[in-house]
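Regression test case RT-17, inverse folding.

Input:
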C-alpha cells in the first residue's frame, strides 16, 4: 500500500495518513462492506460512496496544536510521499 499524504478531516481533531485509493483497495473495501452490510448504518461514512481511505495517526488533537501536529507527524514518520517504496527511515534516505 502506498500513502500519498498526511492530512486532517476538515474541522476535525483527527490527523490521518492517506493511502492512494487504487482499484484494488476500493474492491477490497466494497467486498468487505458486502459481508458486513447488515451491521452497518446505511448513512455510514464508511459506505463506498462516502469512504475516504485513511489511517488515523492522532485523535482528539487540541485545535491550538493542529498546526504543529501535521508537520511533526510528517517528520516523525519520515515518509517519502508518492514513493512506491512507501515509508522509509532516515537511514534509508542516506
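Golden output:
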Amino acid at each position: 500500500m502506498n500513502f500519498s499524504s498526511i492530512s486532517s478531516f476538515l474541522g476535525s481533531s483527527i490527523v490521518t495518513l492517506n493511502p492512494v485509493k487504487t482499484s484494488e483497495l476500493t474492491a477490497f473495501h466494497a467486498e468487505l462492506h458486502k459481508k458486513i452490510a447488515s451491521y452497518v448504518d446505511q448513512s455510514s461514512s464508511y459506505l463506498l460512496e462516502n469512504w475516504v481511505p485513511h489511517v488515523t495517526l492522532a485523535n482528539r488533537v487540541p485545535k491550538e496544536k493542529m498546526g504543529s501536529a501535521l508537520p511533526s507527524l510528517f517528520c516523525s514518520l519520515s515518509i517519502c510521499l508518492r514513493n512506491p517504496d512507501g515509508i522509509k527511515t532516515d537511514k534509508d534516505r542516506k
